[in-house]
């Protein structure tokens, strides 16, 4: 049993179909990057895995259990989701926002246990933002905000970590930093899935690549196995020359 | 600052611990002034016995003061809920049209069907709910932007003209009576009104405080809130219902008190930050204090001229509204 299993899931917004029988299993300790062109269904697949949408057919299972049977609170204890940037409360103290990751572990009378605080401190340290913890969110830069959001989902815990385009607002250093943290989370035993735009980055950090096109999964496997010149041409419509450097797959456009 | 004993724990900010006693003291001072304010001067002993509900002043001013405190707190709470749900600091039951929805429903229920004030709360609640569903539904795509306020404004204009039509279609005495109520006034408050408000406060406020733990994640956006374990599909309708149930009884008794939720929410966030439970408690104390101040100033400061409390809060509200927009622009650059 894998922590996260998507079995031939289909989904559409109204009459417009977006996913056609997509399957993907993610093992504990594995980092899978979902890549594909705009509109290929990456983010929709993410929404299904996060339980934000229900598949029209097929199932999504977390820890072997159909996610339709979880309450939101139970589900959040297993699956943490970093959403695409959607604004943060400007006047809130950063540490209080990170603490919201613990929401699903708290109750009416137990609003902040000592264990919560330890986890929050560890997450702040992991993202190297401990020194900013008492600042208000509105005072932080875009990169710092994103690292705080990542600290929040790390503090949430659980066996599955979902990252929807986590590097979008970051400069290069923090892009790599965040992906390294994601990989470390996988090494600590979580199943990590990230939607990424840059497949070179994906090839550097991910154990496996899930390549999507027009709502279908067209390739799942090692970066070198999936990100071939033929596949890139077929999916992205560009002719490239592929180079491999220390496990990374780099594609240079041919008609420069 | 975090408080823990055994399995129980809670988080309190230092600013909240400062603000709470200061605000409570200010409200107490305000009550002392309000019970004495009037045409004839009162001694300290007279004020004390009036506060206990004795004598003519006690009969008249005590319920009026308590209704101002409770009604102001409830209106403020309603506004702060709407601000959190819509992620828009400018939301307010008056501005979004909930109060006006209650007004129209109450006018129709009272004038056409001749209902009493107990039943009118339910009618007003229905009006507020209908408007909140309409406004939050129409403004859904633009919840975080200013869109929802524009939708509320449009609904307000339409419902306002319905109110005018109903008011001007009767005789002059009815018009005079309704004109005062529809501007938001505590002039006619009785002990029965106090009971009505108190019952609704007893039901809604504990429910709100129990739910307040889930308010903070809503500020992250609905997807992220669900991600951290908040069932927004159940929570959001419950909160909208609660916002309507907090504002409707106040409208029945005092008429629509516009901008109070906006002022209280804005000032509370300035004082204690962005933790919704603290903003709620602070905002409710502020709301009660501000409505009492507006009512007392409206009847005593410009005497013999009497200005309805709703007009006083509207004037103060416009100032805060502009300040909030300016501050918003600074934050969003």
Write a brief structural summary.
The complex is a heterodimer of chains A (256) and B (333). Chain A has 256 residues and is α/β, with parallel strands linked by helices.
Would you kindly provide a written description of the structure presented here, covering whatever features stand out?
The complex is a heterodimer of chains A (256) and B (333). With 256 residues, chain A is an alpha/beta fold. Chain A is 33% helix and 28% strand. In chain A, the strands form three sheets. Chain A has a six-stranded mixed beta sheet with strand order 6-7-8-3-9-10, sandwiched between helices. In chain A, helix 6 links the parallel strand 7 and strand 8. The longest helix of chain A is centred in the last third of the chain and has 16 residues. Chain B is globular, with a radius of gyration of 20 Å. The longest helix of chain B has 32 residues. Helices cover 75% and strands 2% of the residues of chain B. Chain B has a single domain, classed as Orthogonal Bundle (ABC transporter involved in vitamin B12 uptake, BtuC). Chain B has a two-stranded antiparallel ribbon. Chains A and B meet through helix 2, helix 3 and helix 5 of A and strand 2 and helix 10 of B.
Describe this protein with a few key phrases.
heterodimer; A: 256 residues; alpha/beta; six-stranded mixed β-sheet; four-stranded antiparallel β-sheet; 9 helices; 12 strands; B: 333 residues; mainly alpha; ABC transporter involved in vitamin B12 uptake, BtuC; two-stranded antiparallel sheet; 14 helices; 75% helix; 2% strand
